[in-house]
Amino acid sequence: MQAHPKLKISHLQKSFTNGRSTIKVLDDINLEVGDNEFVSLVGASGCGKSTLLSIIAGLQDYEQGEMLVDGSPINGPGRDRGVVFQSYTLLPWLTALQNVEFALRETGHDAKDIPEVARQHLDLVKLSRFADSFPSQLSGGMKQRVAIARALSYRPKMLLMDEPFGALDALTRGQMQELLMQIWQEHRLTVIFVTHDVEEAVYLSDRIFVMGLNHGRIKECITVPSIRPRPTGIQHDRDVLELQAQVLKSIREETRRAEFD
């Protein structure tokens, strides 16, 4: 890990109050993510990975611990972090181009530059010819590409993605993974990616953080061999399949432990 990580989380604690009871969701989370690194958070449902991503995004608070981006504490949402959710969160009354422009207006860009910057980012996700289409006229994969263009348009230091391809069919999902890899390699972003799909995590990531249940914590960090760019079909390589099995075994251990607690 670099001497000065892009993201550093120390002893993070998060609980939710449900009536008279308090449920601890995250317990003593410690992790570091390097500049330009691609990491995934995986784990069984309910382990807190989406909650952790939401805290990094500044959308939720936490009780204890420290969270730093480039050495500065996170105090709410910021332009240094772009967020892409599984739901596309596009404004249905705006075209694809206007959705990206809307995000740029909120970040203080010069008004005369906004249309060109928005078009550049639609071109980045290969959607230039659909700039004037409304979300209802776009496929699921196209909507997610608009969401990615919007998140990248104000040049964040970090891209946070919460199951961004989870609602897509297998073919479109594969195409989106390849597109994300191209964007990441060209623009050298730091990416934190939440997924339930172990194959996806191994294909995309430099490192994988496996989160445990009861309470949410970092159980294990698994390094993925640094073959970049990753060739088509590498998911079926024997070494990669063994790595997928290792990650899946770690997740299943937590599921079984939870069943007997």
Automatic annotation (TrEMBL):
The keyword ATP-binding appears for this protein: yes
Keywords carried by this UniProt record: ATP-binding, Nucleotide-binding, Transport
Residues in ABC transporter domain copies: 7-240
One example GO MF annotation: ATP hydrolysis activity
Keyword Nucleotide-binding among UniProt keywords: yes
Cited Pfam families: ABC_tran
InterPro entries (UniProt xref): AAA+_ATPase, ABC_transporter-like_ATP-bd, ABC_transporter-like_CS, ABC_transporter_ATP-bind, P-loop_NTPase
Gene3D superfamilies: P-loop containing nucleotide triphosphate hydrolases
Domain of life: Bacteria
Xref: CDD domains: ABC_NrtD_SsuB_transporters (cd03293)
Family: Belongs to the ABC transporter superfamily.
Protein name: Sulfonate ABC transporter ATP-binding protein
Organism name: Rhizobium loti (Mesorhizobium loti)
